[in-house]
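TL;DR need structure tokens for one chain.
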Amino acid sequence: MASVVDVSAILQNAQSADAHARQQAEIQLQQFQQQDYPSYLLSLATELSKEQADAATRQMAGVILKNNVDAPSEARKAELVARWNDLPQAVKAQIRQLLLSTLASEAQIAGHTAALDIAKVAAIELPTGQWPDLIQSLLDNMEAETAKSALRQSTLEALGYICEELGNIEQDVLEQAQVNNILTSVAKGMRKEEPDMSVRRAATVALFNAIIFAQTNFENQTERNYLMQIICEGTVAHDARVREASFECLVKIAANYYEKLPGYMQQIFTLTHHAALQDEEDVAKQAIEFWCTVCEEEIDIQQEQDEGDSTTVHHHFVQQALQPLVDMLLKLLPKQEEGQDEDDGIWNLSLAGGNCLSLVAAVVGDEVLALIMPYIQANISKNAEPEDWRYREAATTALGAILEGPSTDRLAAYVSQGLSFLLHAMKEPHQQVRHSTAWTIGRIFEFVHTPAVVNQETLPQIVGVLLGSIRDMPHIAEKVCYAMAQLAAGFKDDDSTSLFSPYFKEIVGALLDAAQRQGSEQEVARLQAQAFEAINDSVRSASTDTLPLVAQLVPLMLTKLGSTMQTPITSVDEHERQSELQGLLCGVLQVIIQKLSDQDSSKAAVTQYADSIMEALLSVMACHSSTIHEEAMLAIGALTYACGAQFSKYMERFFPYLQLGLKNYKEWQVCQATVGVLGDVCRAIEDQIAPYTETIMTILLHNLESADVQRNIKPQILSAFGDIALAIGDRFEACVNPCLHMLQSAQQLSVMQQQAGNEEAFEYNSLLRHGIFEAYSGILNGMSSAKCDQYLQPSAPAILEFGQFVYQDKDNQDDAVMKSLVSLLGDLASNVSNLGPFFQQKPYVYQILEEAQRSPDPSVAEAAGWAYGVIAKSVNGAQ
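>> reply
TL;DR here they are.
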């Protein structure tokens, strides 16, 4: 039976400045946890509830308790939930009661921590019908006449946190009556008559978390009007925390109930305009965020309408408020902080205003130009007073902000006239102006890279200024590298030469120098990353006449990669920095290998160094004994394409790393990259992969079955089944049955995912369906007709049935999925006997093929034409 142990002294020691005392306390807590888990949790809850205990100790007890019922990792969280559910009912009841009683604590931090703990426990128990009286108990706290402010504040926090937790759960946990009661209590705490501002803020934050549950209430105009009224009243409360939280509510309402806003927008504009220009900065930023959210909603609606599938009414809020909204944002731009260009962590009114202006431009397009250009022209060269640099920087930022939205032709007319001025401004005395100028020049090349702007006459000045400015302060050089990257990316790479070719060597040389600059670690890391990214863009855009120069980069990158392994590593930070630099260099190598492998004439430049490349990449892998270096893995994938079947000579040394990467599901991006490289290897060495497939398939099947593996990896694993089958042919027979079983399970999961109906489920389902179809196609094309008949003929009707389900899911159709389905239909017809009658029974087959033949994508139309022919042959053969 669980008993309460006094853990006060242990928790005090756990906070000691004495490292030995802390370590001993941590050991004692760990031993207590392992020896008597129920008593351990009960003792923590008891310590949290002790009114006479030290506040910091109470908080620590509550935080440790929270960490025993919740964790960031889904796998760890599942373990903790299982342990909680296994606790004796009496212990759980005691803990719940202790947490509820702590809400009344006069020590605010204890009540706050108890509210967090209650929400975490509620997230476990409410979905399964446990703790049924929790919500009512909290509501009773709010209604009790004797309830003190501390109790009301902590109770509101608990309600808000519970709503936040339940909002992350797909199932409907709260009944509408409970939602109504929660909103009533919260609204009561938000009223302007509430004298305690901490209670009012807690109520407003609780509403913020409850908004997603209020759909029914927002459909009711009377209830909606009342909620909007108290929120708007909160935006002018005398406490800044209440005003900020109220604007946060408006932001969330804009994201969730855009269509309900027309009746309130005039008042909201007045409130946001006043707050943005006159309120404290944190409040003002939330007022700006409201308009950012409205812009994002309207961008999405426009995109959906362009695609012909929008059901949401476009209210054109941004267009209706355009001139005063733009005027407001322009007034914010000169409110910069000194040095904001050097700190990526700063987010102030100037930056928020520029971000919102960019979104406005994306919504209204060309209309923004007439409102912005006079401001730019009036301020970009303003220099009468020492502080006028603010207006020059603001005007430059305004130009850069609006480049994504208006038409290229309209922008080119302005930019072609102003580019020379901007290039001269790179010699401006104030560093923040130079920083913004470099960024704006980069944005010009990203969005207005036209012959009117970048041509034979302008390129010498452009390149000359960028080569000079790349030697500026590191944070400015970083933006110059960005400009160089965008300049390079705008040139086509499929020509024998380009205007960029004469400058390729000098630009890449300057970027290599920039990547070796000295300075503060953070500045140098950002500059280095941007410089190498610019090299990558330069290589991708290289024309045929510069490929010999690209080839010269291979030994240079190998030398640089080798030097990273000669540097002594004496700390964790140095190891991380080594890994980052190796990642950047491996990334450049990957791009170079891909570029040179595109043409047979340049592929030899890779193969002559293949042994050295592989040696270097395996050495990088060996530097990281417990993990696999993702970028090194991807570079090896690129090398497989250049080497083809010759890559097999590296398999004995490479395979242990391939295995390690496939097993490394805890770093899921690494695992996903490794699965992709597995496909590359299969395509390159084909049946020479056979000796390794049993081990590979064991790992892949385990990953599919494991709940611990990140689900985004799994569709790619299904595709890998197809790659392996294509590579080894009938030898795939040894693993075909478990593979088909997995594919059938995946089909069932896809049907379930479709019923979930949210956007995240749609995106994952598209990946899943694509993986399923690719797997079947690979098996069908890899194995002989006799084996296809033996193993796939019984499954063919179910496959066709699933294809029909996917085709009829019109709301969630994806072009890549449809293309893979069309190909699979043809593969079934050409590789499995006697399917003619089944095709005849599925009219959708002809409907999808007719639609695909009209596709603007030639590859889709071609696949449909081929599939139509083989299916017709299959049907005619059955008659």
